[in-house]
Amino acid sequence: MTVTIYHNPDCGTSRNTLAMIRQSGEPVEVIEYLVTPPSRGRLVELVAAMGITPRQLLRQKDTPYAALGLDNPSLGDDQLIDAMMAHPILINRPIVVTGRGAVLARPSEAVLDILPNPDIGPFTKEDGEVVIDASGRRVAT
User: Fold this and answer.
1) Residue 37: CB partners within 8 Å, gap ≥ 6?
2) pLDDT grade, residue 28 (50/70/90)?
3) Per DSSP, which regions of the chain are E strands?
4) Residue 63 and residue 88 in one domain
5) 1 pLDDT exceeds 80?
6) Handedness of CA 5, 9, 10, 12 (dihedral sign)
7) Among residues 11, 70, 97, 115, which one is catalytic?
8) What is the pTM of this model?
9) CA 108, CA 85: separation in Å to the nearest integer?
10) What is the domain range of residue 63?
11) Which residues pair with 30 in a beta bridge?
12) Cα(65)–Cα(89) distance, rounded to whole angstroms?
């Protein structure tokens, strides 16, 4: 089973998530979603698979979110999806899909809940935060 990650290599959370996937030993398909955005249909499928709303998938920081008025609560799901299609930077990341489900991996360790092999051994994030300690226990944050 291949793990798919919608990835932004400039994002630390995305890099940490990808590192955990690779450390799990699972084959991984990396889709740099800013270069190759998902189709509208695929984006709708991902939102449904994650059990979230399009609004919950919107990234606000360092995006045209405010300039586009996307904080307007009267905007519907279709309008929010339209905005993400026009501006893929609005899609929050990383999104990970496995045979066990799909997740917006924020925080990055959320990926462990859907990895086929979540016993990845010790893992420390780029910033030094320990996710899994030397004895293999997941550290609560």
Assistant:
1) 43, 85, 88, 91
2) very high
3) 3-7, 28-32, 95-98, 101-104, 123-124, 130-132
4) yes
5) no
6) positive
7) 11
8) 0.94
9) 24
10) 40-92
11) 5
12) 9
Residue range 43-54, pLDDT digits in tens: 999 999 999 999
Residue where a domain stops, chosen among 92, 109, 133: 92
Neighbours of 55 (CB within 10 A): 14
45 in the same domain as 88: yes
Q: Using the 3D structure, point to which of 92, 113, 129 is the last residue of a domain.
A: 92
pLDDT in tens, 77-123: 999 999 999 999 999 999 999 999 999 999 999 999 999 999 999 99
49/83 same-domain check: yes
Label residue 36 exposed, middle or buried (CB < 10 Å: 0-12, 13-18, 19+).
Answer: exposed
Q: Annotated catalytic, 11? A: yes
